[in-house]
Amino acid sequence: MNTRQLATWVRLTAVLELLPGILDSQLRRDSGLTHFEYYVLAMLSESPEMSLRMSQLAARTNATLPRLSHVVSRLEGREMVERHHGAGDARATYARLTETGWQAVREAAPGHVETVRHHVIDALTEEQLDQLGEITEAMLERLDPDEKLGPVYRRHDS
Amino acid sequence: MNTRQLATWVRLTAVLELLPGILDSQLRRDSGLTHFEYYVLAMLSESPEMSLRMSQLAARTNATLPRLSHVVSRLEGREMVERHHGAGDARATYARLTETGWQAVREAAPGHVETVRHHVIDALTEEQLDQLGEITEAMLERLDPDEKLGPVYRRHDS
User: Which of A11, A46, A147, B71 could connect to B153 by a Cys-Cys bridge, CB 3.0–4.6 Å?
Assistant: First the structure.
């Protein structure tokens, strides 16, 4: 790697180290949720009937099924999510947001959005945001070549 | 957030979820090190006499001192790092790379660099790499406003 590539990589590494911790701390402190828990609740809240098949939810949250299953169990214990079986396919397991879960994500959202806005969106110009959109898209083609995880991010602005 | 901002944010979240896992898996599999352990060893290997004060090492690795201390203890157990006291200030604790640690980082580096190259550097054009350098710099001014952590990333290309 040349010096400029290395400088960019060192900074990206610093972002990878710092940003998740900042998102996590704000949500834990203000809402008692990890960033991943929040993301799971948010993805369910945007789905039809607030329900998703576990495998779909795993894809939307860029998580493996075992990891997701563990977190959904924890959210079930807090009565924010419930597992159920689909009408069509009795073998498929779904996760559905409960009223408690919906309240939790609705109350947590403004603080989280404010954190994202302050640390990322407002730090960049409109042009940089567009550039970052294309850069992350190019990276995701390498990070997730088979689109196994999170195809959702390719749908937004096509 | 408008649709374009949201699309960019969703993709950046996916990168934050996926990239650390890929870096970690490759290093664990091929070298028996976590990405953070590798980073600690690499920072020491680039320092004068392969030694850094613990507080400086924490800054270079974007870590809190308790987290770093925990990892240095683990690396001490594997005889890759040793703690010592500075000549000038007996109260200051330093970490120094051992011969075993130097071998470990030297053997791990090519595979790690190859992974970074494949998933990030080669995915982007020269222009995008420059853009990402400026974007991450702008983000780090928000993520680390007091430059408490990792001032190293601002030194590279000025």
Answer: A11
